[in-house]
Amino acid sequence: MSESTSQEEPRPAQKNEKEGKERHQDSTEMKESIESSQNVADVSVTEASNNVGEEATDEIKPQELTPEEQPTTSVDSIKDPHTRASGNVAIRKPAKVILGLDESEQTSQLEQPWKKNLFERVEARAQAMQQKIIDKDNLKKELEKKAEKILPKDNLAKEWFNTESLTLNTRVYLLDKLLPTLVPAVEQMLTQMEKKKLQTEADIPTKFDPINHLGEYLMRNNPHYIKDQGMSGYQRVMRDVTEDLKIHVPDTVCNRVSKMKEKVKQKREQRESISKVKVKVANMRKQALQEQFNEWILDPKGMIPLVVVQNVLHEFFQKPEVQLDSYCQQLDITGSMEPGLNKMEFTEYISSHIADFKSETFEELLKHLCHCADEFREVIKADMRRHMFAELFLYCDRGKVGILDRQRTLALLEMFYDQSPQMLRSLLRNPRQWPFVEFEEIVLPEFWGDMDNQKHIYEDFDKVLLEMSTLLSEKNDNKNQSKLLENSEEQHKRNEQRKSTPSLNNTAEQQKATTAEQELHRESATEEGAYTESTPDRRSIREFVPEREPNKGSTAGQEPGRLSASEQGSHRGSTGEQGPRKVSVAEPASRRESTIEPGSRRVSAAESGSRRGSAIEPGARRASAAEPGSHRESITEEQHKESEQRPRRQTTPEEQQDIDSTSQSREESNIKESTKSRAAIPSVYTEIPSQEKSSSEQAYEEEPLVRSELQGEVPTSSKKDHISGATKKEAQKDKSCEPKSQKIEGKSWSGEFLTCNWRMKYVKFEDEEQANLIYGNSRFTDLHSIIRSIQSYKEVKGRSAFSGASFNLLQFVQLLETFVGEDTSLSVSETLAAFFKRGYVERKEEKMSALEQVKQNAFRVRRGLLLEALFQKWDSDSSGFLDVKEVDELLYTYKQGMEKESMKKAKLHIQFPKPHPGHEVRLSSKQFQKYIELVVSELRGNEDQVLESVVEFLMNTLERSHIESLRNCARRKWLHQIQHAAETSGVSLEPVYTETFKALTQDAEAHGNKKISAHISLLEENVLLPHRGNVALRNVACTLDDAPFVLNKVLYRDMKGISFTVVDEGKPVHVPQVQYHGNIFFWNHSRSKEDYNGSFLALPLQDAYMRIFGVLAVDTLRDPHEINIFLPHEIRFYQGVANVFSAAYHYIHSREHILHIVITGIGWLYSITSGIISITTLFVEPSPNQDSDYVLRSMMVTRQLGLTEIHTNPPTISRKSCIFRDFLFKCTDSSQVVLASVCGETHIVVPLRERTGEALGVLDFNIGRTRMLLYQEYKDLQKMMKVIQAACYETLDELSGERKRKCVLEIEDVGEVQRAGIIFFRIMLQELQECLQLLDSMSFVSLLLYDHSTIVQTESLPDSKTRELVANINLVQDILKGVILFFHPELEFSSDFQNWDKCKLYVNKYLVKNICAFDPTASDLEINLQLIDECIRDHSRAEVWSFGDIVIELLYHWVHVCLALIDLNKKRTSAITPPLPSKTDNYVCAKMPGAALPGKC
Fold it and tell me: pTM, whole model, 2 decimals?
């Protein structure tokens, strides 16, 4: 033991003696309290144990402090090598530097031996003391029990118990202090008096004095000096009474303890009751969940995939009405379908996440579970369909090239569509329309001027909606009349009965009549509220589109204002069928109300026209705790009778003949004519059973056969329709009590679910295959590690690039799924697959061409990997460029210079970038690859072999040390993190700034041993102080230490500094010693001149056109070393950092511009449409989990009012959490439009494509509970998307340098940000001008003669038609007047303006030329906007569309676009700036110009 430790030992010993005395006193007081009160014995023991614990803690403190207070280390501790090493590490260096150890772990190891021994001794001592106290208490209790047996209790002492408040304190004091001794004394005195017979013989003199005897007894039995004296039975009862009275004395310890015990008891009982209720509720909830488990479709093992249950909970927690977003963080959604849950596991898993739910929340969860159970059936059905189409692709891809011809695929779809019956065609989507046909494949006049409603994706959709609204209105009127008749007849009967009934029963009869009348009035009011009057307006038509609740089915009489299923004629039947389902043309997009059960009754096509769907039987719910919404749908007897009593719509033979002839002629014309023909469809239902035949004949030979099969398999009636109503009702009741079928249309689920691992099974990545081939080639061993790093940096994979010539597997499957839709049965998909197998035949030349295309694609990918890896090896400093001279010198040595002349020829075919100020031509990675490819093309031999030979030669010639390779690898990683920050920033530059400075500082510490400071300054126009220069440099970001001195400071041209020299010359400037340079501006003026020791480096930030937009500055003023000059390899790396930062900067700004374009387009669309509920804009980003998948970031949401919410921290959506909403990822994967219905709402998801064809984002259009938009709105949506896509292409090309910026309008010269706000309207203006140029003069002549031709017709037409013709005349004249005013503003003051015959003279051959050359943003433009607005204000979009003239359509859009551009030109500073939020905002609401244009209907 060391000397310092022995000197400290007596101090704790002395303290222990003092503490022992204190402890003895405490134990004595504790014993007294135990003797005085046994009711609080357990509390006393607890206090004693607490005292022991405090004493033990007091003992620990000096012993813990002793080693730390010692100034020296003992000799024995120095001899221990382990302790010495631990001590050295803890004292000299941080633990994280040496072997990555933690400092807390070393400290714990250092203190562990003596602490452990100390705690063991203290713990043993405390336990011994506690046990001693417990033993004394037990001994005392045993003695008391023995005394009770000897001396029984005397209950006479209970008379002392009195809780009167006036004498309570005195009584307690006497009983506690005096009477326990006085009563025995008096008793003893009386006993002595009896012995001496002093009471009987009062006259006998005696020496006995009772008072003296009493005093002597009290003195001898003083409780302070005599302990453990025996107590009589009377004293023991008195002691108990005293303790009971002490409880009632206020503000005493016993009183407070008793109250605490009472509260503890109450709380314990309350907890027990609550726990019992919780257990009961938990058991009931588990029982409800177990019953709900039967609603799900299970895999062959009887399980539900865990990821499905997690998705259900995740969607429920994200509902805004429940406000459970915090619960989403507890869900760790798995990405595999393998783990499953049986019934018990399902119950326990959900119960573990909902333990603290309220009853209302749990009921909502049950409803959500029931809804998701039905949704999951639809998801499984869709997955089975996709699997079927994937197998079809593999069957048709006989050459195994991985692609199918797009035009042949579309031709087969058109052929199948034409041969399908009209009933099936009402469910399929027209393959001759968008989205099957791309925008570029539609001629401009047809795209902008086609207003034929029959060319909708659902044929005759608008017509069916109008007929349906009329039918509903007629039914409403008929029902109201019938109710009134019934009321009058019943009232007449009651009056007669009242006359014939005796007077004694009058009162009862009147009450019954009143009740019946109230019920009838209530029913009539309910049915009247369920309908809306029909008007020709487009809004009223939309209101008649059937709607339904998000949960499956609807209860009879659920809501008075909602249409019943039998009255709407658009909902599905109550039970799903083994075959197809019957769906109306006008039914909403969420047709997932049916429960698919085999053997259920089918409704014939004849009856479906009058009884479309059914309602729900009130008593047909499942006997479970699933609440409303978890029941199944069944047919009510009352509504079944109503449907039978309701007059059915009969078709006359003449009408049927006309329909048949019309449909037959249209079908023949569809086969013979081009893709523009359409067929009219009556509102009927269809079903197609499974029909598959194997045949190898050609498609044209099988056309009649397929046509006959499709037409012959649609039954016109069913035997089950003749079953009586009672039998149907009993059958439905029996089925409602049974569990749901585990089959989907008669097919069992195999348990395979490809939604999560679809790409893993079917999708192959060409770059990974080529990389694996390179890994197996020993010729490129030096490039293997570089290629692996390149592959690891490609984080967004799996997106298919759209091609107008071919489909890959994902695109083919998505196309067929879009074609068949969600309403058709699997048998229709099987028939389509069989049709494709017979019809898809490729010629030999096509197969060879496809194989050649695949081979070229593989070679292109392989070539790109090899050349990129070679470039990175060559660019060892990660500067991002190579010198052309250095490349040529090495290339010319290939084959000892024999190919030098051929290589020089390649230079004639390439356009090198402009030389830098030092006359140095630099090649970027893409330019280097293009140069090598041209060189290889000039060499003789096979191109693949020559390329590999050249790459191998250059790889072996380049000599790089191991240190350079490691440094290059680390720097590549840091540069990748900058780009990754830009891609995952959610359109924010702050993460990019952070990663840029992090890369600079890490490289300086690791490869330069320096401490640096850095800042980034961007050029901006000097508006406030133009006399100090046209432009200024503003410091937008800097390292943390320099923030108070540098951030947001501005550098002007008249100030010191070399930054503007870098801007002017475009090359880096390095100042080795700033203290000797006279033109350096120091931002930190508090630093003395003696501290100005360091180097300064300024690098230009250049865009794709080599224009300077900022400066990156790095200095070493904070470095303590005297020599801190930047080395050449550091300068080259900093140049690479500047290049990567520039790319990341422009990447973010490209996304900002795209958001700005989308906001402008959405504002235009909302100004002319009203059927869109919301529009969500999402961008594709790399996944943070490094699983090579991607996520979607929701950037902004536009609601119905046209206000766009742009979030600061937009939420991300992963694939594994979107099993029920995977349509977003389907669109991104295939880069195709997806139509889907989820939770009763229809979604149109449109991709935003890059130039490569891959999707960079998606636009999700939510159109609510309608099946589809009206054709006018559908066409306007197409126009918006075409213009937005063209604007995105132009923006991306300009920012990447592939396309030079071209300004068409005068306003485009103001800047990039302002230009992004008007590019949408400019492109639309160009398209409208081009369309007008393609029109002939007769189109305008017909408009000028329209008023004369209509005047003749109005004489023989009714008033309604006459008013319509007059409105059309006003429309033509007002729009043409508005156009004329743009070019002839002088007409405002002329009388010719009011005379149409004189105004139409201005519509001449020069009008179109003036329109095409007109610039609405010109500075010299002078027009009367108010007068133009008055001309077109009263004409809505629906009025223009219903007129149906292409010239009026184009001029209407042209006028509105010109007005929007003029408005933007007036508000350049406010309206054009993109409304992106700052970090202090949660979101920003934006409404761009165009959203409030006149003419909104």
Answer: 0.72
